[in-house]
Amino acid sequence: MIQAILVFNNHGKPRLVRFYQRFPEEIQQQIVRETFHLVLKRDDNICNFLEGGSLIGGSDYKLIYRHYATLYFVFCVDSSESELGILDLIQVFVETLDKCFENVCELDLIFHMDKKFPALPEGKIQGANARELQMSEVHSAQICRHIFLLDSALLTE
Amino acid sequence: MSDIVEKTLTALPGLFLQNQPGGGPAAAKASFSSRLGSLVRGITALTSKHEEEKLIQQELSSLKATVSAPTTTLKMMKECMVRLIYCEMLGYDASFGYIHAIKLAQQGNLLEKRVGYLAVSLFLHESHELLLLLVNTVVKDLQSTNLVEVCMALTVVSQIFPREMIPAVLPLIEDKLQHSKEIIRRKAVLALYKFHLIAPNQVQHIHIKFRKALCDRDVGVMAASLHIYLRMIKENSSGYKDLTGSFVTILKQVVGGKLPVDFNYHSVPAPWLQIQLLRILGLLGKDDQRTSELMYDVLDESLRRAELNHNVTYAILFECVHTVYSIYPKSELLEKAAKCIGKFVLSPKINLKYLGLKALTYVIQQDPTLALQHQMTIIECLDHPDPIIKRETLELLYRITNAQNVTVIVQKMLEYLHQSKEEYVIVNLVGKIAELAEKYAPDNAWFIQTMNAVFSVGGDVMHPDIPNNFLRLLAEGFDDETEDQQLRLYAVQSYLTLLDMENVLYPQRFLQVMSWVLGEYSYLLDKETPAEVIAKLYRLLMNDSVSSETKTWLIAAVTKLTPQAHSSDTVERLIHEFTISLDTCMRQHAFELKHLHENVELMKSLLPVDRSCEDLAVDASLSFLDGFVAEGLSQGAAPYKPHHQRQEEKLSQEKVLNFEPYGLSFSSSGFTGRQSPAGISLGSDISGNSAETGLKETNSLKLEGIKKLWGKEGYLPKKESKTGDESGALPIPQESIMENVDQAITKKDQSQVLTQSKEEKEKQLLASSLFVGLGSESTVNLLGKADTVSHKFRRKSKVKEAKSGETTSTHNMTCSSFSSLSNVAYEDDYYLNTLHDRGDKELKTFSLNSELLDSESLTELPLVEKFSNCSLSTPSLFADNSMEIFHPPQSTAASVAKESSLASSFLEETTEYIHSNAMEICNNETISVSSYKIWKDDCLLMVWSVTNKSGLELKSANLEIFPAENFKVTEQPGCCLPVTEAESTRSFQYSVQIEKPFTEEILSGFISYHMMDTHSAQLEFSVNLSLLDFIRPLKISSEDFGKLWLSFANDVKQNVKMSESQAALPSALKTLQQKLRLHIIEIIGNEGLLACQLLPSIPCLLHCRVYADVLALWFRSSCSTLPDYLLYQCQKVMEGS
């Protein structure tokens, strides 16, 4: 099961954070910080999996991350997930964002509010079915806060 | 397809916007979006955190004013919500808006509702109290005819619905499973999945409906149901074996590309779906040949189809390999899977390499030769720059450790440990090193040094079991007394040297270990006197960096040493200093020491040398205080009442039973955790078995055989000869400068080659030292039975002890627990006792054997036999009642007839108890086994009767029950039979006690027998046990019921619909009485009181009340889980009849 999705930039500034387990605000921030330090230490040419740690739930959990330009996408999952599967899921996620924002970049995640993007309804884009199947794991078709916001921004228009 | 619906859904907002009445929606829209936009822009334009805070506070206060103003329209509210979400996201408190979010979800039109639900799901969490206010809205929306509203409600239910409120929406969501739209069905399945996660007991009754979802014509719904199945199968795979066919068919269709193209990802059909199906199959096929056979074809197909063109196909392949290795093995598939692992391990892509190592770790115990094939890669990975890869490699090495390679592997682990700084890594690795050291230590010095390293690095983060185990090991010792003493002496010496070093800080745990060992075993020292040791401990005591806990350990050590050191100034000084210590604990210890010090004789008898592992007789009933109590009572003191009794009395004074009608029925007690999973996790399983496999190889392998293959001289002759060739082809010197240059280059190259090959050689050396003991001789032992010999030190000694019968053993932890004699006597004439008390000894041997629970106990059979014979041998049921009549026709009919006669004879024997009918549970050509349950008042008695169908003589038939988590199974006497005469039947009786409530569990075991002295065979069987087998009526009065009712804290309420046949209360209760063995205490009007107990003695009370056709059940018990399970059973009974 996916426990958390974290997106932060090369300086560790969180751009998108979604926990599927209740944590107090300070713990959330601490988790983001620690994750950032763990991920930052690693070169681009070593493997994309990080094991265990005391972050969320202990040894059963893995961090699976991908680095795109200025952003790190980190998924925290438990042992019931396939590592490579999640890696591709991140790819799908980024592709989806890309479709929304037309060449997504970090700035889009900051100023996405009043742009006229097609939102992220499920099942509309190619690959999304696959994504959605997996995402159902986290009981939600919408991925995270920003996407939620995006969704609502669309609705207000 | 769901696409169409979704498109409609996305189009809906637009429609609504168009339809919105009133002038100027466009203007309003602009202002909304710009207000949020300007807020975002404003924030990003700021330079400092402080400014941001100011701006947000400003924003929040204006929002607060707006949302609480009565004039605010819903449309404005919606806009405010979006901004509130943004503020909350930035980490500012917007709790004043929560209630408005709920209101918006309740009142608004579709769009506003949408934003309201969104805000609620972001603001609140599952246990937030405001969520109660949302329940009504959700219920209303679930009943709505509008698709979008139903969708929103289902989404929010699966996101943050409170657990206690599940009964309120459950029937509605169940109905949605039959909805005509796929998207609704899918969302309903997901909502139920969520319920299953947080409160599995509440959705137990709709398992049938999940099956329907699995067969849904829409792929989305089917895929959603897989989540539930994966979860349920993980918990209990045996209940879903019949679905294997369906899963296989689905996977076949997916692999064959039968799904709509939408589900393709990089032209791979639904990869995540495949992964999930493969996992389910792996769980189902584990250790089950018949189920596994069903899936061989499709696995083969998957392996073949997964062409390596994309990352995600590797994910599928990996899962396939995993499944192939976890199900019942098939050699062809294993071969293919091994090839796949090779692809992973040799891949240049680091992620795949990582997974390859992981796969190797999984399969290593089944197929150690695979590790040999890839040994060079593994060696390379050991020096990999990526610490994660390194760690995975160490994990792999940990699995293949044996007595021959332990030093090299532990050294590698220690190297890694010294580089690593993460606490998690240290804790994990330190535990592994300690385990390996304990199991395979080649000699004392190495063991102590390794443990020293473990303690100094692991320090205070490691698991407390490690120092405890280490100390126990030292104290209990193993086979050889002199070796024990040497080990202890070595430990003492090494600690003294460590303490001599100046300016070194050791972790507290390490100091504690040291002080205990020094306190216990300093007497072994020749050179140094106890006084010197005390001086060293004293120095530590005065050290400020030592924690007060450690100081107590130290002072305890000093106390132990004091009687040995005839007179010591240091002790006096210590007493003097610590009797005025501010730490009360230390002061007490110091005073104790002081008083003991004054009476040396007492001290010596209190603190004898080397008696650390003998049990102390503790008078738990505190009988020596009886006089004091009697005196107190005679002087008029009130008798003591336990805490619960006092509370009960207090409660019963305050309240009487409340018979008010119930409100909304939901369980107010927490479900403390889910059903414990049946423990099928592959990972843990492996770690459990790996050690044993390793050891088994050690037992069977010869070192010489391996040297031939992997030794220094013989290893990879090809490479060596290659270097030889190159040196032979050295270019002949020529005059041309150019050629000289060439030559120089060649030489350089060559020297590189040489150095490289040197490195290679080093690696090969390492390889040969690492992989020793994993030679090709080791056969692939796929279904190897667990070997109990595992710990080099501890266990072995026990086994030996058990075998050696009455040979006296040097240590007595285990023995003493069986000895009924008092401990003091035990100490003095232990040897005498063991010789005299032979009956006792036999008992001991037997129980030790049964503890081991392996084939060992079979070899000990004669002894066991003797035991059972000499003690209560029950009269054999059929010895005199010969079955000769059925002799000639050896048909099954005969055996069936025999069974029935057997059953009838049991009937006679056990008329006072209810019992089940005989049921055949397994058979083969020679024997057939059937079983009965006898529901005795105090336990469940399981009877297995073995019928010999062949005309041959069966010898030493034996029945073993596998240990189960939730049961305690005790053998009833008369179970063992040396010779089963041809065509006769024998029975085995076991009483089963429940340890933990459950719904349904499986008890399995096997019958083993010898035929004609030569051929031995085994037959496995399993029996389903239900909770009901352990429920007995509890006969109490109404008054007692009232008292008990108040004293129980765990309660569960639920309404159940009654069928017409049982519409009246008495008939419903009668059903419960008959089916569940509940005792009806009283029926008052439309209410009924019932009681039962779970064996051995956990009471559960039930209060029923009828209105219309609904039966309100209210359970209370002292056990937190029992009411849930009983409720489930009640529901089943009420719905079933």
TrEMBL record, chain A:
It is found in: Cytoplasmic vesicle membrane; Golgi apparatus. It comes from the Eukaryota. Its main location: membrane. InterPro entries: AP_complex_ssu, AP_mu_sigma_su, APS3, Clathrin_sm-chain_CS, Longin-like_dom_sf. One of its GO terms (cellular component) is AP-3 adaptor complex. Adaptor protein complex 3 (AP-3) is a heterotetramer composed of two large adaptins (delta-type subunit AP3D1 and beta-type subunit AP3B1 or AP3B2), a medium adaptin (mu-type subunit AP3M1 or AP3M2) and a small adaptin (sigma-type subunit APS1 or AP3S2). Interacts with AGAP1. AP-3 associates with the BLOC-1 complex. This is AP complex subunit sigma. It comes from Macaca fascicularis (Crab-eating macaque).
UniProtKB/TrEMBL annotation, chain B:
It is a peripheral membrane protein. It holds the Pfam family Adaptin_N. GO terms for cellular component: AP-4 adaptor complex; trans-Golgi network. It is found in: Golgi apparatus, trans-Golgi network membrane. Gene3D superfamilies: Leucine-rich Repeat Variant. InterPro entries: Adaptor_Complx_Large_Subunit, AP4_complex_esu, AP4E1_C, ARM-like, ARM-type_fold, Clathrin/coatomer_adapt-like_N. Residues 1032-1135 form the AP-4 complex subunit epsilon-1 C-terminal domain. Belongs to the adaptor complexes large subunit family. Adaptor protein complex 4 (AP-4) is a heterotetramer composed of two large adaptins, a medium adaptin and a small adaptin. This is AP-4 complex subunit epsilon. It comes from Macaca nemestrina. The lineage of its organism: Eukaryota, Metazoa, Chordata, Craniata, Vertebrata.
